[in-house]
Design a protein that fits this description.
This protein is an alpha/beta fold and 184 residues long. It has a single domain, classed as Leucine Aminopeptidase, subunit E, domain 1, CATH 3.40.220.10. 40% of the residues lie in helices and 20% in strands. The protein has five helices and seven strands, in the order βββααββαβαβα. It has a seven-stranded mixed sheet, with helices on both faces. A hairpin with a 7-residue loop joins strand 4 and strand 5. The chain starts with a strand and ends with a helix. The structure holds adenosine-5'-diphosphate. The site of adenosine-5'-diphosphate has 21 residues, from helix 1.
Length: 184
């Protein structure tokens, strides 16, 4: 599914994020920035060891939850990887929603600062970190749409590994577009 909002194209994609040709690929990292499983492992495997080396050299203290750090993308087509640790879901009482929002917002700001025109997000926190997919999809899409004016992106991709997650994103984007139309 695709939707044009202002001059920005939002595209929902099912597949492997490491194959995206956007300027930036976002990594659902963990705070150590020393690699891990899931999408983090896939990005380090596809990009090669220089990404990990850059994380070690530039970010010895890692990265706080909801913050974002940038490296090059090694062997991948993208120019940069933005690493952001999303929150671990602990039932929703520990500002997990706010922290997840921060991950998307800070990634967009950092990408803009580097002049990126396109960015691909995975579904941050909804794998091993256990964030419910419906809530996470709503936060991901609404955070992006709310910040379109202060960022420079021409294309924003949401890449889901599984067909069922992609369906959730499709349903969520459709609903958000409908709600915005009704408001205006
Ligand atoms: P987190 O620790 O933030 O929950 P995970 O990597 O465990 O991160 O999962 C985040 C999401 O990324 C999950 O929906 C998972 O299916 C998905 N994922 C895993 N590998 C890839 C990949 N290569 N491309 C896109 N999404 C992926």
């Amino acid at each position: 599914m695709e939707a044009k909002i202002g001059s920005t194209l939002i595209r929902l994609v099912q597949g492997d994020i490491t194959r995206e040709k956007t300027d930036v690929i976002v990594n659902a990292a963990n705070p150590s920035l020393r690699g891990g499983g899931g999408v983090d492992g896939a990005i380090h495997r596809a990009g090669g060891p220089e990404i990990l080396q850059e994380c070690i050299d530039k970010y010895p203290k890692g990265c706080g939850t909801g913050e974002a750090r940038i490296t090059t993308a090694g062997q991948m087509d993208a120019k940069w990887v933005i690493h952001t640790p999303g929150p671990i879901w602990r039932g929703g009482q520990q500002n997990e929603e706010g922290l997840l929002r921060n991950s998307y917002h800070n990634s967009l700001l950092l990408a803009t600062k580097h002049g990126a025109k396109s960015i691909a997000f995975p579904s941050i926190s909804t794998g091993v970190y256990g964030f419910p997919i419906d809530q996470a999809a709503k936060i991901a899409i609404s955070t992006v749409i709310e910040n379109l004016n202060e960022i420079s992106m021409k294309e924003i991709h949401f890449v889901q590994f599984s067909a069922s997650d992609c369906q959730v994103y499709t349903r969520t984007l459709t609903q958000i577009l409908k709600d915005t139309q009704e408001e205006s």
